[in-house]
Fold these 3 entries.
Entry 1:
Amino acid sequence: MTFSLHGQAVSGGIAIGRAHLVSHAILEVAQYQLRERDVPAELLRFDQAVAAAGAELHALRAEACVPGAPAELSAFVDLHSMILADPALTDGVRELIRERRCNAEWAMVQQMQLVVDQFDEFEDAYLRERKQDIVQVVERVLRVLLGKTRKLAKRKTTTDDDLIVVANDLSPADTIQFKSLKIGGFVTDLGGSTSHTAIVARSLAIPAVVGMQHARPLIQDDDLLIVDGTRGVLIVDPDIGVLQEYRLRKSELELERSKLKRLVSGRSRTLDGETVELQANIELPQDAERAREVGADGVGLFRTEYLFMNRDELPDEDEQFEAYRSVARALGGKPVTIRSLDIGADKEARALRNRAGNQAATNPALGLRAIRFCLAEPQLFLVQLRAILRASHYGKIRLLIPMLAQAQEIVQTLALIDLAKIQLRESRHKFDDGMEVGGMIEIPAAALSLGPFLRRLDFLSIGTNDLIQYTLAIDRTDGTVAHLYDPLHPAVLKLIAQTIQSAQRVAMPVAVCGEMAGDPKLTKLLLGMGLRQFSMHPAQLLEVKQQVMMADAAQLSLRVARLLKFDEPEKISELLEKL
Ligand code: PEP
Ligand code: MG
């Protein structure tokens, strides 16, 4: 039966493909009592399901050996095969079927709970994490028991179809893994439009809709789905007419995207000759290649915290240095703005779990995150500072500090940078002594009290994602208040415009690196505020460039000055339309 669901459009485009469920609703199984004489058959049914799940893993093992398959695939297959073969899981299920005469699905979930609870007691974070793997193995067996085996050979999908992840929620750490897998799109029941999960979707340029609320319980594995990431719509089991219409729309979008490629070599200049720098936001070193392909003027934001995710050990100084140097080299002398670790709130790294502030805090976004955490952990911060400084010898590297609010934080950070330099001199490492240090303006207090930033730093970068969150008191990850997350709120616009103007008055470079910079509907507004440096995902850069090339900066400056005088949202939207 066809039906559609609506959520928040967070990453444009259209994906058509089969659902791949990654949440645990499958674990909500029915419980029923068996007759004594049915127990042997149930035991046999369970053993056959375990064998079938084992065969699935065996088949996956073969896929993992194909050249180019992600290394994680074979590690996960080995681990899951081991868990499946462990009698601690399966013997307990057999006993429950025999002794309590309960159905195999129910017994499996009960036994899983028992094992998983024991894992919670472990001191070692790595072992605690393995809980997830046990749950996934149990899900695999349950799928067989419930008759939901993925019959890949019989799937109705054509090779053009995408794999669409359907989840209750995804963390930024989950989503970043999609970079090495071939995921066509995703939908989640929770989440807000500038959560880092959404940001990673945009950086992958895959269609995504979040905050769907009921998608997960209503969708089954392998359902045919259309994700319209531009309108925020998910269509389940579409009829042939709708499917054809969307296939057509998808190819039109692809055509439009390929036409934009003509702009790669064009100069990013307004009609009246103002040069506008368009830089790239990246999460991993390999993203630098995409930045180059679209002709970015450099990297305006390298979110280094992604180097710290999905691993149990922290990256050491050499590993970080190699990562930063590889980006510097890939950009061939163009500026690379490396942001120091912005961990905390929705960005979690399990290797830091026992130290990074209070994960159970009521308001982690207001807690010991980003620079606050780095200053509380100076040894860890120094490792990163030394790695960034060492890389500065190989390109034009700039250091960007997130979440600054207090003058004292700037002073302490600069002192630690000096200390890192002393240590590098002692160890005879080369670095750029004049490496520029900038601050993110993403807390209203910083925007309203720019003096120390202008006096002590070399450049500013406005993080509109957090600036909106903190100005409007809207959790950027919370879908229930997402309708109130408004980049065009007059208070937000005033803070951005004032920051740009104050920086320009003292000739300090200022950029916007939040999501507003990559939204082509806002390009003229920001140009009119005087902005000349934008940093965004590579996938958005050419569309923004197109807007720049059609803009008259002088005229926009007058119109935007008028727009900023209004504080009625309707009037602001009306004037924005006219830009
Ligand atoms: C921002 O807050 O706007 C920003 C660019 O940083 P992040 O999204 O990583 O918090
Ligand atoms: Mg931020």
Note: The radius of gyration is 26 Å.
Entry 2:
Amino acid sequence: MPDDWLRGLWPLFSPLRRAKPQTAHQISLVLKTKGIALTNRATATVFLNTERRIGEISPLIFGGLAEHMGRCIYEGIYDPASPLADKRGFRSDVLKALKDINYRILRYPGGNFVSGHRWQDGTGPRSERPRRRDLAWRSVETNQFGLHEFMEFAQELGALPMWAVNLGTGSIQDAADLVEYLNLPVGTSFSDLRAKNGQKKPYGVQYFCLGNEMDGPWQLGHLDAVGYADKAREAAKLMKLMDPEIKLVACGSSNTDIATYPEWDRTVLERMGDEIEYFSMHAYAGNRTDDTDSFLASSLHFEDHANTIAAAIRIAKAKNRSKHDVYLSWDEWNVWYKTEGDDGNWQEAPHLIEEVFNLEDALVVAQWLSTFLRKADIIKIACIAQIVNVIAPIMTKEDALFKQTTFYPLMLFSNHAAGHSLDLLVQAPVHDTKMYGGAAQLDASASFDPETGRGALFLVNRSQTQSLDVTLKWEDVAPEGFTQGWQMSGHDPKAHNSFEQPDEVTAHEIELPALEGPQTTLSLPPLSFTVLLSRHAPA
Ligand code: AHR
């Protein structure tokens, strides 16, 4: 809708006026808060072809970080004092909500925490485990939840463990000893110790991270790119000698603002890319200037970031004349900008970065997950940071939890995106944003599983004011029909859930559209995320 047209209407609504809005967008927002809806629609078309595929979707993109930070582990996962704790001290309500999300991989024990962590502290009888200062979060770590507890917890969730080893204060020998403890059959010192501590059978952990954010000056034992690459390469050598089956993730840049990005990535990949299977990306998005239009275009930045690191991988591979493939592990991602603080004041389980997420945050999380699908050929692991209480989709107090807005896109993607990611052709209006220039009003991704005939479509209408009528056109074979659909939307981008109002923003089931030949039309309200499941005839 042209700005002039809407500005011309504004005097009609002058009784509503406090400060005169300047743009059509501001006028629409004011009218919306007064319950006045303008017919303000745009159209878009999405062309789908079940044979036009980007890559196989790795289930491991639905992962999470469980860090010893704040109240993620203590009072989150493990809380023996809670009336909701099971006999192991695990919160049964948290387990249920985590199972609903359906995490396939869990990164542990950090995050920054790992760079000062001694893995042996979390083994053996609980009464003998040391209390220590956690220097990363200025907290006290009791070690009452440790290695064996985490393995049991991950197993209960059906998630693969991804162990981060300490390459900050830790030695390459410590890293190799951890692999021995976790993965070797009894008969050596550390594997025998594991058996003594109650686990005779090797755990067979496959995924290990070679440190955490070692590019960051805040990291305990921070190194420059050359120093890190050389230490990580030697750690990799020892760890793989201990167990050749393991898969390793090296540290990429901790964010795109850091001065060493992307030179860090190129240097590390060139010096040790042949020793790893995955290379990590970390990023946190935020609406720091309250510019919602730009924030809602965040996936442009996510794709740019992934493209840059994918390019660094290719350059290193070419430079080294290597045949070895490295994939991306986006093992810390989320929205995080409202809370700050790394000072736990030397308390146990302090309240750290307990961010409350709103509707616009959930729409960005949905775009992040769509980015993983659109980059399914290269992104094979991803972990939302974190899983409980600390910038997390689930918040707990002693006897209850609530699900944040971000819970819903994560759960819907994790349970329904499967098979292959489809290469969609999207035609949608493009709007200008301050941070990213032109952004299509529609952010879309889709999956299709030829074995089951199931399809899933994930759509975000980025506009704050304009509905979008989206026509879906199947270019090859149309589905037999739709099986289920959900939508989250609202007028207020800042709407959020709380213990008092846990269902302020959720995903609700929608009426399914009718197929007309190979196409259908779906209406997406402003500020919305929609999921539509389809069923194709089995091949
Ligand atoms: O997830 C919170 C922290 O953010 C992690 O510990 C660290 O790796 C990142 O900087």
Note: The pocket of alpha-L-arabinofuranose is lined by residues 67, 69, 110-112, 212-213, 254, 332, 385-386 (CB under 6 Å).
Entry 3:
Amino acid sequence: MKKDEYIGILTSGGDASGMNAAIRAVTRTAIFNGFKVKGIYRGYEGLIAGESRELTTEDVSSIIQRGGTILKTARSEAFTTPEGRREAYDTMRKEKIGALVVIGGDGSLTGARIFAEEYPVTCIGLPGTIDNDLYGTDFTIGYDTALNTIVECVDKIRDTATSHDRIFFVEVMMGRDAGFLAQNSAIASGAEAAIIPEDRTDADQLETFIGRGFRKTKNSSIVIVTESPGNKNGGAMHYADRVKREYPGYDVRVSILGHLQRGGAPSANDRILASRLGEAAIQALMEDQHNIMVGIHNNEIVYVPFDQAIKNDKPIDKNLIRVLNELSI
Ligand code: F6P
């Protein structure tokens, strides 16, 4: 990495709390080590359009505590096309951007991987998504904050569920096939069950929950369900309808938490994670690392080749499923 070129930094895909802390860490570590940084706006869209400006240490002051991303973000259709990536490469050269730090989830790092295969660009990825679904890192930036938000919401819903003797199906977000938020928020909020893609079939999980006679010993029940984009046979509405139809005696309600899980001030854990990963991204560049995601495993920084981070499924710890089952009797 030449010091007369800029390190470009962008956030892409769904925003996640802690992205700003990562932008701050990347910018300040780069400047500390004698590099210049450009912030690229609206993810790959801005990379294509040349929407960037130099960032100073002051530009990233007072952002560590803010949710969202000061660089804005987008899901870029254009960058999925060869023409879009060609334009992005041309813009990078014109703007003297020699390396790219991409903060985002699976789709964003896939874009970085393809780009780096096609053009002589160095890309370093940072896992930024509430879904926690990237292989090779124990945690992604934004996951801990979202988890805490869900638990706070479910605690409130519990008051209503208990007061009215109701069953609540609470729908949380996920990324494709990842039930991390659902499974862990269920444990942390004392929910009676979680219905997640990784645990057998959806139908089995509902049957198990019902089969245990959920109203026999409890006056309320909370079931956490992952969202089911584009799939009618999933999501909280689907399960609530089924229970209403099959067990008309039960008082059933649905709460879909939606995008309120994505924003808000990052938790201390997310701020620390983002700071460590952002700092490590610049260390990786200085070590001449190419096309890797910086992650954390057993509290140590690790470099994961894009291929592994994106293509491998990150398994959920099956012990978590047992813990929830045993503790929700
Ligand atoms: O990947 C992050 C995420 O919040 C997923 O949990 C969810 O499926 C998706 O993004 C929602 O995307 P959008 O913001 O485009 O509605």
Note: The chain has a mean pLDDT of 92.
